[in-house]
């Protein structure tokens, strides 16, 4: 087994206790043996390989962060869950996103925002991956302004709620069993969360075609037309967008870990290629300018990893704030962009061929750079924290 990453120059993995590191190594072997052989084929087709759900189910990797619902009890550390997101993205960011949407956004919304009865009703089957989750917040006309401008509405009608509106870019939604839909209550104007079950009348997800990034993720545009959801499916602990922000704070940090994984995957591909590719009678890894590109990338990886280790510690201590995850997301995704660009440069013309993998990393990095809050939005969150002055419109 590949026990240590060549990109782990400062031995960050050693910070994990042995009991947790075994899960990281399990994820590493799973991604190498089960996922890597499939990804280019399905990336080219723009489809999610449904057979992977059964493989994930057998792996026992889901549900680890949630005490009482996963294979490991008690719940594992944020450092491990972060490194697992990194490890999956090191092989393929699309598959890591499928898992992160299910195991992170959807399950965490229920775990954080649901009642105990709701957690017990939905999470066991999701932890076993017998049921797949999705998270529907972004709208066709609303991204960064969704907090105050959510157009999807909810109206109470006795023991049910009627949802109307549209969502866009919703990963897993084409096949998910449970979709957490966020809507603005017409009576009090606050955002609330609802678990919409697959097959509910009026709920129509349509796969988005023509993407050049995250092609394996089946993002959907969802239309909700008089969708009736019982009060029992309204997340009982979500009463305003402030509660939703608690969820986004945690998942935003996960995206930064995902960006780190993309950096590492791209760097490893470039390093391996540079050692093998011959020009002027010697491997290009022997050239000073190529070594300069590689060392700059390793520096970005090492700095980003150190930031995320401390972010995980703040999460485990229960003292991390919005600006902590926002700085990590903004900084690490910016470093990721540079690393994948340098890595693709080392490949030269071969860097645009899917068979060399690096093109997949290069395009997927653009999606990661944009979602879960753009660099600009996260910058303003941090800017407000350090100056005490809001620059938001």
Protein architecture, described:
The protein is α+β, with helices and mostly antiparallel strands and 393 residues long. The protein starts with 17 loop residues before the first helix and ends in a 6-residue tail after the last helix. The longest helix has 36 residues, at 241-276. Strands 1, 2, 3, 4, 5, 6 and 7 form a 7-stranded mixed β-sheet that branches. Strands 8-9 form a two-stranded antiparallel sheet. The protein has helices spanning 18-45, 51-59, 78-91, 93-113, 116-127, 146-149, 241-276, 288-316, 322-347, 358-370, 375-387; strands at residues 133-136, 153-157, 160-171, 178-185, 191-197, 203-207, 219-230, 278-279, 282-283. The model has no long low-confidence stretch (mean pLDDT 91). A hairpin with a 5-residue loop joins strand 4 and strand 5. It folds into 3 domains: 12-127, Orthogonal Bundle (Butyryl-Coa Dehydrogenase, subunit A, domain 1); 133-233, Beta Barrel (Butyryl-CoA Dehydrogenase, subunit A, domain 2), CATH 2.40.110.10; 241-387, Up-down Bundle (Butyryl-CoA Dehydrogenase, subunit A, domain 3), CATH 1.20.140.
């Amino acid at each position: 087994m590949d026990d240590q990453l060549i990109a782990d120059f400062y031995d960050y993995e050693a910070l994990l206790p042995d009991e947790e590191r075994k899960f990281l190594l399990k994820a590493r072997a799973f991604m190498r043996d089960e996922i890597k052989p499939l990804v280019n084929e399905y990336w080219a087709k723009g489809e999610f390989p449904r057979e992977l759900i059964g493989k994930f189910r057998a792996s026992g990797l889901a549900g680890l962060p949630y005490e009482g619902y996963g294979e490991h009890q008690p719940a594992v550390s944020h450092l491990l869950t972060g490194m697992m997101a990194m490890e999956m993205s090191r092989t393929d960011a699309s598959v890591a996103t499928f898992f992160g949407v299910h195991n992170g956004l959807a399950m965490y919304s229920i775990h954080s925002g649901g009642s105990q009865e709701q957690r017990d009703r939905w999470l066991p089957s999701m932890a076993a991956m017998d049921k797949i989750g999705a998270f529907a917040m972004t709208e066709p006309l609303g991204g960064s302004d969704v907090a105050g401008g959510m157009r999807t509405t909810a109206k109470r009608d006795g023991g049910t709620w009627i949802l109307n509106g549209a969502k866009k870019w919703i990963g897993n939604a084409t096949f998910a069993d449970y979709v957490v839909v966020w809507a603005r209550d017409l009576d009090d104007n606050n955002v609330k969360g609802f678990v919409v079950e697959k097959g509910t009348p009026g709920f129509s997800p349509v796969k988005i075609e023509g993407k050049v990034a995250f092609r394996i993720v089946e993002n959907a545009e969802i239309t909700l037309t008089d969708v009736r959801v019982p009060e029992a499916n309204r997340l009982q602990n979500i009463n305003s967008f402030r509660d939703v922000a608690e969820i986004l704070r945690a998942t935003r940090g996960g995206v930064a870990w995902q960006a780190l994984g993309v950096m590492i995957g791209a760097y490893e591909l470039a390093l391996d290629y540079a050692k093998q590719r011959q020009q002027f009678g010697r491997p290009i890894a022997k050239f000073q300018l190529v070594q300069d590109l590689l060392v700059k990338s390793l520096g970005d990886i090492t700095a980003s990893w150190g930031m995320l280790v401390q972010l995980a510690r703040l999460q485990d201590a229960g003292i991390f704030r919005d600006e902590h995850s926002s700085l990590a997301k903004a900084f690490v995704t910016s470093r990721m962009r540079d690393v994948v660009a340098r890595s693709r440069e080392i490949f030269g013309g071969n860097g645009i061929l899917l068979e060399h993998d690096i093109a997949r990393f290069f395009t997927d990095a653009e999606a990661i750079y944009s979602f879960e809050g753009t660099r600009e939005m996260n910058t303003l969150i941090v800017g407000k924290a350090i100056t005490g002055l809001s620059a938001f419109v």
